[in-house]
Amino acid sequence: MISRFAVPARTELPPDLQERIDQVEEKTGFVPNIFMALAHRPEEWRAFFAYHDTLMDKETPALSKGDRELIVVATSAANNCLYCVVAHGAIARIRARNPRIADQVATDWRKAELDGRQRTVLELAVRIAVEPWTVQAEHFEPLREHGLTDDDIWDVGAIAALFAMSNRLVHLAGTMPNDEFYLMGRVPKKS
Amino acid sequence: MISRFAVPARTELPPDLQERIDQVEEKTGFVPNIFMALAHRPEEWRAFFAYHDTLMDKETPALSKGDRELIVVATSAANNCLYCVVAHGAIARIRARNPRIADQVATDWRKAELDGRQRTVLELAVRIAVEPWTVQAEHFEPLREHGLTDDDIWDVGAIAALFAMSNRLVHLAGTMPNDEFYLMGRVPKKS
Amino acid sequence: MISRFAVPARTELPPDLQERIDQVEEKTGFVPNIFMALAHRPEEWRAFFAYHDTLMDKETPALSKGDRELIVVATSAANNCLYCVVAHGAIARIRARNPRIADQVATDWRKAELDGRQRTVLELAVRIAVEPWTVQAEHFEPLREHGLTDDDIWDVGAIAALFAMSNRLVHLAGTMPNDEFYLMGRVPKKS
Amino acid sequence: MISRFAVPARTELPPDLQERIDQVEEKTGFVPNIFMALAHRPEEWRAFFAYHDTLMDKETPALSKGDRELIVVATSAANNCLYCVVAHGAIARIRARNPRIADQVATDWRKAELDGRQRTVLELAVRIAVEPWTVQAEHFEPLREHGLTDDDIWDVGAIAALFAMSNRLVHLAGTMPNDEFYLMGRVPKKS
Amino acid sequence: MISRFAVPARTELPPDLQERIDQVEEKTGFVPNIFMALAHRPEEWRAFFAYHDTLMDKETPALSKGDRELIVVATSAANNCLYCVVAHGAIARIRARNPRIADQVATDWRKAELDGRQRTVLELAVRIAVEPWTVQAEHFEPLREHGLTDDDIWDVGAIAALFAMSNRLVHLAGTMPNDEFYLMGRVPKKS
Amino acid sequence: MISRFAVPARTELPPDLQERIDQVEEKTGFVPNIFMALAHRPEEWRAFFAYHDTLMDKETPALSKGDRELIVVATSAANNCLYCVVAHGAIARIRARNPRIADQVATDWRKAELDGRQRTVLELAVRIAVEPWTVQAEHFEPLREHGLTDDDIWDVGAIAALFAMSNRLVHLAGTMPNDEFYLMGRVPKKS
After folding, report:
1. I need a labelling partner for A109 at 20 to 30 A (CA). Which of B1, D102, E75, F144 fits?
2. A107 — contact with chain F (CB < 8 Å)?
3. Which of F115, F118, F89 is CA-nearest to residue F180?
């Protein structure tokens, strides 16, 4: 299921949405359901993906693209968000070149194959997802000790916040992950 | 406190941010702290306010602007978000022309001076804020019985989702409400 | 609403209740609803206000009357008790001469404009309200470091305990705050 | 342990406290620790026992003294209050003439040897103890169907509220039950 | 009640079950209900008691049989398991030669008459019962400091795990404790 | 990691353990870590696998082997048990011939591709895993309406109970899933 709400025909979408969706399809081989589930609201669609892209298509020395996906997986799992865990789990496996990492982080990030830096990142991210009112400046210290800048720490928190929204939109719409995501990044690409 | 993170000088902001901030200041009499707390990230700032405006500056027969503010107050209170409760509580009082409604909804929405329609709206909104994974299509029925369309129901859920993000950004930044908000909408305007 | 239960006529109350209610009305300008909501049980009424007065009409060097009201606001907010948050929030604003403090403590005491001593006081009070079985003697130490005596610590705990009862009586009766409370202490008195 | 706080000598207590304590000792054979744990505060002591006596030393057709003790046991167990569970469990066994009932209600009231009326009473009482903000007038209906009057329903709620306070005072003081309570009501009295 | 499910006649049970049940009856004076509640499934019965006996009929310098019963009482109380609290509470009183210890550990193990070693044992056991995903190797340290070997620590965890199963089987079947258990170990044996 | 505790050499294990482990290895192609993690305790090992086999190697018209594995996945996910989710998720995919079902049930069983019967099964199983004290006979009715016999209902509950134990043993030992499990059942077997 793509959505409990209206899903417009792709050909009726505003040109900028069509263009982006065509690009994603070309690159990924299919259109992830979230693109169509939000499409009945072009203004919100634009804001959502603008927010998403600026936080996720980014790489710093202390916070790789793979790390960012793991934040999504850990916090979405805390919200039982199937779409986000499966879709971003796929991307996380690819980015981290580790076919086990998404299942580990989704089920029990405390025992996942992470280094110390990643563990502090997920600890803050899950706190922001689950009990954000307890966040104090002192919770940033372990991340700083692992080399994260203030900009990186903001990214950790902002990604957790963005997917707090995303998880809830998905639960509202009842969006399921595309079948293709489940297997992505699990088997070595043929050479 | 505006933020635990960098707060750029207003004069150094991109022109579109400056323009909007000037407009808000002119209309409201001061610059709400959230505008400056997010300003170190212009891309995110633009996405956030685009999302916000399209959902909040809207009025339908079954979901007024005041109702939308009450959704923000109820869900932000569930997240102990002081900035959002106080700032949107002020707007809710003004929109609903009721000086008590924000304190009521923030502390115990079950006992607030609401009609049956508003109560079903807040019940769904709080569910999405607190345990979104339990949302099923059947939870939309009580809202439909009170005249909400599918578009209205999406708005209820999307506002709850947007402020799930907003609350977490505020807790991340440690942003406090401007002093002016506390009193707004509590005393009748002088004629 | 004053109560889901019987509310006797003021003139039919025992003389001592009438006298106290008259005094309160004279001093405050109205009769707070709790006085009438409990009045169908004069014995309980007397015990309740005797307990209340001995703990709340008191001031020590390390625990002012305003501090005591903040304990009520913080613990009552943890119980979503609208009457107690609004009524004692009003008194707290007046006692603390701070028009913002009650809203802050009610929504997120961790971020409120408090000094270190007040923060330790509210931390113990909220623990007693929410998970009293975890209280150990070691939890008194931070309060002692801020100058609280054993008598003061008892007061902190006893106020939290008394309002655990009071909050539940109010939820039982469905008592709403008087309209007058909402604005009290928010605007400077005319000179 | 009687208390983490001061425990005055019995001979130094105000005469009315001494008199009541003497009476209890004569009747019960020992002085329950709560009488001494609260004695450093005679005003509070008087209010507490006045409240207690008016609610607990009472019997109506639909709410016996034994039922009242079971409310105390069920709600105190929800708060892990050892003193109240053991002391009032003893009284409950005696009043209900059932040596198993207190252990059952303390551990799992849903499976205890109760009739339908008692079950509705404990269900409301535990709701008031644990999540009082959810109480609505509709929750009184099952009790009315079992013959409870409004006065009885108030008693159920007020007892749950009083012991919400009592449990917290005991956790504050660290008061342990007297050894005598553990066995009371478990073995048939010698004839 | 022995069970919501089938309870076979004792004479129809496989000989090994009959033999063990006869032995227990001879030793204890009655047949504990759990033996009959599980008897409709001889394979499971055998596995359950094999597991039980190897962990509970054991004594090491740092973990006595009485300590093992206290683990059962504390973790079963966290699961509101009436049968296990009452039946193993009886054995705990006898093994520990303390008529108060089971009621204390069941209601509030933090305040029970335990030494420091026992407290660390129950702290780990309750953690495994309630939030096992948080267990880290560092949580074993306090037990090691009190002389527990790795084998002892495994026993603590395995007993908590076994009764996580046992508690759930009992709740599934609705098994009540035999009347005899309530009084066992409370009164000194006649000499 | 196989375990935080001793892992004996395979050649030093009792012959019956060696034999079973050899069989599993031959059939599966590797030795699942749980077999070695429990091997330092042969008595417990035997009881555990006896219990496991009698409940899991079984198929009835209303409860297939695949259904049984889904019970394990759903309840183990509620306990964040990585080993059980990944290992039994692999078996569930194979048994149910559905490469998506395990990820769905682990993350959000409410939205998984299940039929009505399976949904009632998982609803009871998760209740037993998470809040077993609330189970009443009435909770069996929806399963009966879907054709489950009393024996099937017992199996649902007993599997949930067994893995309540298993999950806790795994968290105690810190056992990680074998790498092989992650991919099993995700790609069609070559013909």
Report:
1. E75
2. yes
3. F89
Report d(CA A161, CA A130) in Å as an integer: 10
CB D184 within 8 Å of CB D93 = yes
Q: Quick check: D191 pLDDT over 70?
A: no
pTM tops 0.90, yes or no: yes
Burial of C77 by CB count in 10 Å (0-12 exposed, 13-18 middle, 19+ buried)?
A: buried
Q: Do D6 and C80 touch (CB under 8 A)?
A: no
Q: Which residue has the tokens 């409301």?
A: D124
Chain-centre distance of CA F88, in angstroms?
A: 5
> In Å, what is the CA distance from A86 to each residue of A74, A82, B98, D116, F100?
11, 6, 45, 47, 10
Please give the C-alpha separations between residue B131 and each of A120, B75, B91, B136, D152, in angstroms, as whole numbers: 25, 11, 26, 11, 35
The nearest CA of chain F is from the CA of E189 a distance in Å of: 34
pLDDT of residue A128: 98
Axis-axis angle for helices E65-78, E82-96 (nearest 10): 160
Positive or negative, the Cα torsion across F93, F98, F99, F104? negative
Touching status, chains B and E (3+ beta-carbon pairs under 8 Å): no
Q: What is the pLDDT of residues D113-145, one digit of tens each?
A: 999 999 999 999 999 999 999 999 999 999 999
Tokens of B188: 């009748």
Nearest to A160 by CA among A178, A135, A138: A135
Give the separation between CA E90 and CA E86, rounded to whole angstroms: 6
**What phi and psi values does residue F63 have, to the nearest 5 degrees?**
-150, 95
pLDDT grade for A51, boundaries at 50, 70 and 90: very high
Q: Does C148 touch chain D (CB under 8 A)?
A: no
Please check whether residue C108 touches A, CB under 8 A.
yes
pLDDT range class, residue B186, cuts 50, 70, 90: very high
The token duo for F121 is: 């099964």
Instruction: Kindly state the tokens that stand for C154.
Output: 């008892």
Whether the CB-CB separation of A33 and A176 falls below 8 Å is answered with yes
Angle (CA) F127-F130-F135 rounded to 5° is 40
pLDDT in tens, B25-83: 999 999 999 999 999 999 999 999 999 999 999 999 999 999 999 999 999 999 999 99
What's B98's DSSP letter?
A: -
**Which structure tokens are listed for E50?**
């094999």
